Amino acid sequence: MDKIHKDLVKKYHTLAGQLGMTDEDKRALLSQYNVESSVDLSQHQLIDVCACLARELDKRDGRDSMDALRKRLIAVVGKFLLMCGKGEVTISYIKATACRSCGIREFNRIPRQRLRSLCFAYNDKIKDMIAVEKQYQKLRR
């Protein structure tokens, strides 16, 4: 099994897990392709299955969750910039910072998973900064 096929199988199982599919659901889906295991699917079949599962996930989560994730990212990046000593930061500056941190030119084109990972990363940075500040204050006393 080559790397591409292995990655597609991994993506299939990730999407199936995100959708909350049971083993029976997975077997029913795979039976449409006359296979018993996801490893037995061809790359083209895996691409089709993953696209179908991704569409289903988008339908379930909807556009609202993307907007909520974008707003959450804006809030956490804004808080991070304020903690770094930036004064008044505009929404465009916050969006530009988020885009630079993930290498994508347009804020609305940041994919769902990248939005989540950026939120977690900036939250971790904020927690680290707070911990360092507390430690510094302890040592100063």
Structure description:
The N and C termini lie far apart (60 Å). The protein has one domain. With 141 residues, the protein is mainly alpha-helical. The chain is built from five helices and no strands. The model has no long low-confidence stretch (mean pLDDT 90).
SS strand fraction: under 5%
Low-confidence runs: none
Gross geometry? elongated
Backbone structural class: mainly alpha
Helix fraction? over 70%
How would a crystallographer describe the biggest sheet? Answer: none
In short:
The protein contains 5 helices and no strands. The protein has about 140 residues and is mainly α.
Features:
5 helices; 0% strand; mainly alpha; elongated
Protein topology:
Elements: H1 3-19, H2 23-31, H3 43-83, H4 91-102, H5 112-140
